[in-house]
Each structure stands twice: as structure tokens, then as C-alpha cells.
Amino acid sequence: MSKDTKQITILCLVGILFVYLLQGSNAVMGPAINAIAVALNIPEGQAAQVGTFPALFSVLAGLVAAQFAGRVIKVKTLLVVSLLISVIGGSCPALFPSWPMILFSRACVGFAVGIYFALPPVLIMKFYQGEEQRKKLGLANVFGSFGGLLMMWTVGPLADFQWNSVFWIYVIGLVPLILIIMGLKEPENESPAAEAAGGKPKVKLPAPVILNFLMVFLAGIFGMGGLIFISAVVVGRGLGTYIHASTVAIMFNVAATILSFLFAKLYKMFGKFLAIIVLIVVNIGLALIYFANSLVMAGIGMACTGAFLLLMPTLLTDNAPHLDPASMTFAASFLGAVMNLGNFILGFYITITTAIGASMFAGELEVVLSPVFFGIFGLAATIVIFLIIRVMQKQPGNAQ
After folding, report:
1. Are the beta carbons of 283 and 331 closer than 8 angstroms?
2. How many CA atoms lie within 13 A of 313 on its CB side?
3. Most buried pick, 61, 152, 226, 271, via CB within 10 A?
4. Residue 69: beta bridge partners?
5. Does residue 247 sit in helix, strand or coil?
6. Residue 253 pLDDT more than 70?
């Protein structure tokens, strides 16, 4: 453990883990999109913005965290403010149901999620080192995977009860808010000497860290198509109904949760190559989803793509030996921002590849699944390039 370990209590650790439960807040409104469209009498395509609109604000929030957290604004202060924004802004449409209020709410949630991605991993990396750090990152990832699953399950019944009641889901943020206020102590200054001299610590990002930014960006674009288009595969190929599609989709989070429990052991086994293995498994999953001719095949494919959620703790752990304390907060925050940027660019990627697919494929379903088809090749190219880089990359002397 690090010198900061004495600052963390069980209450603080539980608070950090409960913040991880909220990391899927952007995506949990999927089951309610149709209900929102019907209630407000708007096209379902327009209502789908509740899923895509927050990503831009997540990117902005990640950049804010990278630039200011721990250097200009205290980490605890920024985390508390983001939780308040999520609880108050996220639940507003439950009381004031209108489309402008929903967009405002989604912007608030997007900003908060950008902070959730950035700061909790930073805190874990500051409070723990080595094997203990990897165990805590894996445990945190379990909470993140389970939280997305739990919130999505809850949104469905709420939408059946009353469409705008789904926004009460964000009140759950009061639990980590209270825990963080009561339990979290501000981590020690990253560079006391620099601050005493009236300056700010200089941020240094080595080439391996910058390359990891690029990896998570490309993985976010090419690797997430299977999750988005699983219902098109299941229903379009006559494998089942939307209920079956939802059941298959849950395998993404189930597999991610199980793998997160094993993260520390997996990283110990594969080290710097774990990120490559994760991308290979995700690509196998994409191929299984694209060619699925049964629910079992589609389910296995979704389970494989669930490995994607191991990428963030893997790259955070990869980055740690290359960074000095003054750069850790910026790098971890920026990594989250870049991942969210990839998810935001994914919308444009889907539009472009669908247009290309329309000129290549005759079948309507094949056109719809074009982003998955091209994603398989894009992710394969990413794997080859980064495998070569990993083979040539030397581990720093302080790697653990």
C-alpha cells in the first residue's frame, strides 16, 4: 500500500465503490426510450438522444477533472459537486416532465458520469499500490458492472409504472454522496514542493501512456457495436423477441462482473499483454454476434464483449509505472475522457459505416449490422498494431 493508505477507511472505500455503481448512468435509459417517445409524442429517433446526448458532456467533464482535480479544485469537492449534479439534475424530469428538461437532465448526468469515470480510479491508485491496487480496481469494476445491470433492471419496471418516474433512479446517488462526505479525506498533495514554491506540478505523459489513450479511443469506437445492435441480431434473425434480446444483452454485464473479480490474477498472469487479450476476446465476441444463428451463440458473443469493461482498469494499471505522482490524476482523468470521446464518436461511426454498408450489402439486416461488420476489421487492425507496440515496449524499472 502507499503512504496514503492510512487516510482511507472502510467507510471511504465503500463510498468510492458506491460511486462506481453510478458509472453506467448514461446508458440505463435504454429500456425507457420508447416510453418517452410515446408520452411526449416525438419520434423514437429523437428520443434516442437520451442515450447519446450525455456522452459529449462526459468528455467535457473528464477534461475538467484532468485539468483541475487535485491541482485547482480538491478531489473531494469535485466528486461531491458531481454527485449533487447527478442527483438533482438527473431526477428533474420526474417532477418537470418535458423534452427540454430531459435534455438538461441528460447533460447533468453526462457531466457527472465524466467525473465518476475519472476520480474514483484516481483515488484507488493513490491509496493503494501493487497487488492490493489491482484487487481494489477489480472490485471497483465489479461494482461498476453490477451497478449498470441493477439500474437498467430498475428502469424497466419504473417505465411501466409511469414514464417519467424512471428519472427517480438517480436519487440512488444520495447514498455515495453521504458516504463520500462522511468518509473521504483529501489525498495528500501530489507535489508539496511545487505548491510551496507557488507553482503547479508539471504533467508529464510518456509515450506508452499516450498510446494507451489511443487504444481505448479506438476500442470504444470499434468494440461497442455488438452491445448496441444485439436486439437487431436476435429479432431480425428470428432468434427470439425483445425480451430474449434483453436477456442476451445482460450477459455483457454478467461476464464483466465475473472477469472483474479475477482482474488482479489476470493482470498478474498476462501483465502488459492483458489489454491485447481483452481486445482479442471482444473481437471474437463481435464476430459471434454478427454471425449468430442461435440465442446461445449470441449470448456467448455478448459475454465475450463484456471483457471490454476490463480495459479501463488494465490501462490504468499499465499507466501507473510510467507516471510520477504529479501526472497520475491528469492521466487517469484524461483516459476516462478519451474513452467517453470514443463512445461519442461512435454515433458518427455508425452513420458512416451504415451508409457504406448500404452500397455493399443487399439485405436490410446486413446494412443495419454494417457497424459491427466493419468494427471486426477495425478492432483486428488495432490489435495487430498494439501487439507489435507491446512486444517492443520495455517495462520501466519501477513496474510492479
Report:
1. no
2. 35
3. 226
4. 73
5. helix
6. yes
